[in-house]
Give the backbone structure.
Amino acid sequence: MQSSKLKMLSMIVAGVLIASGKSAVSQQESTVKLKDGFDVNTLDRTIDPCSDFYHYACGAWLKQNPVPPDRSIYGRFSELTDRNQAILRDTLEKTSAPDPGRTANEQKIGDYYASCMDESTIEKKGTAALQPELARINGLKGKDDLPTLMAHFSMVGMNAFFGLGVQQDAKDSAQQIAAVYQGGLGLPDRDFYFRDDAKSVEIRKQYLRHAKNMFELFGESPKAAAAHAQIAMRIETALATAALDRVARRDPNKVYHKMDAQELQALSPAFNWSKFLSQIGLAGVPALNVSEPEFVRQVQTLIASSSLDDIKVYLRWRVISTQALFLPKNVDQEVFDFYGKVLAGQQEQQPRWKRCVNSTDNDLGEALGQAYVERAFGAEKKERTLGMVKALEGALEHDITDLPWMTEATKEQALRKLHKITNKIGYPDKWRDYSALQIVRGDALGNSLRSNEFEARRQLNKIGKPVDPSEWLYTPSTVNAYYYPPQNNINFMAGMLQPPFYEQQLDDAVNFGAIGVVIGHELTHGFDDQGRQYDADGNLRDWWAPEDGKAFKERTDCEVQEYNDFRVAGGEHVNGKLTLGENTADNGGLRIAYAALMESLANESPEARKPIDGLTPEQRFFLGYGQIWCTNARPEALRLQVQTNPHSPSEFRVNGVVSNFEEFGKAFGCKAGQTMVRVNACRVW
Ligand SMILES: [Zn+2]
């Protein structure tokens, strides 16, 4: 979504949810109150679990929880996001009064939130609030001034031409290096500029309309606005021709091109990189990763072949498209109409307080997160989660040891990597220091830009320093978890260790099916088609015997084909290659969580095996899994998801996975020939 900021994060992060959890939230209450967590009343018992397990597990929930008007997707994890958000709101409302007794962090989060909520001040400032940024563009005397301007835009988070970041060197993970990567596109992916089906053509038409409207809202005549929209589209389309698509960018070798500043300069002589780098404090930087060299070449060609006036139009377009939340209502609404309504089918904007909570969390997450952790996360949760992680690691160890298709030498390396995985649970040991960030009451846009710059500086300061593996890539209240290949660690935010993923008072079977599979999913990411290319120390290095690599690929090809066959409403196919890593993680995660549960039950008294609500532990395990994925979505959102998101739609995350797993059929007494008993079942881990 457009309001999300360009953050200088490394790009390879393997999460578990369809989104980072923050983008699709709303306070819209569902009409029927089911329990917050696992609930046998959400089943649809008229459906045979062996024919369609997802609708068996979720049927009643799906009927009772239509997508609210201010969302495009609504699932069980949205309920959790709502609860987390209500907690954050409470903290923010308490700290937003200008009380002199506030701590420094309370002043920052409180004033940030209050400024964001202060619509009348934002309205009064109007589009003039962006004038200083636009004046920089208008003041360009020649193309020689571009590096200075681009340096500034990189720091304040304006997404034009390319992005700048910091990442661990993929082949020398102890080093932090600068990274230049493709950027500057307003549509969600390069393919959106070229697909020729009717819907894609319509989206481009709407995008042009949106650009024209925006130029008009910033004071241009309809005629000039229409012409400028065409120019912006032409430049973005030219950039898109050289951009890598999402499938290609999943391959870590395709986005690794380490070079020095001279080599970067040689790629694109029309842009003075040494001026750019020195402006952001990176003069003399020894190494950069240029993720997509062809893209940088294309930026060069465009700059060389476009008039300065056209470049200014493109830059204006990029600037006015960002920061809508802090601009007048008509701009904010126009941005929503395209990104929310046209692209995702969302009918209404979310209430402002939710968007301001998200923005505060995005910019000051570790200041806001401290209060969240105090209220929603305790030491006992950390302990029990850690116990489950250990059980899951044990199950994966058995799985690797017993694999029939892998040679001993590769197994040894795989186990070495598994044993070196570190676990982070809940929240950071050491909170981020925001003292250098100035938050000014009444200056919503300025707060956002200063936050971007604070974050950019924080990232750039890492270059040449030791890696800090205790750092978190998401904020504590985020409903998500991730595996991070360059650090070989798994991370579970406190925001996710809540119902329905984790329920303290429930039996192990349900918890192993829910949070247990999430843990297994993240562990398996270390060994999916992407993660397996990194070694125990987070280096991109092939540690596989050639025959094992071949056997692995045969197994993942099975998953690619299986998921390619799934279709969403409207007929669009899931992209088996784009979703491969997530699908492997889902399939492996379910298997090892199941094995861990069996191991745990074997060590307990027979009491633990007694059915609850008429369901065996095995059945409750699979239901625990199925139910976390109950999700309703608008057709536009599903289409957007299969085109851009590495996670398969929820229905296939459930049915695709259980139909590959023989233990599922046993648990529900399924017979050969039924849909949930796949003939060509796929298995990697
Ligand atoms: Zn994942």
Observations:
- The two ends are 34 Å apart (CA to CA).
- Residues 95 and 235 are 44 Å apart (CA to CA).
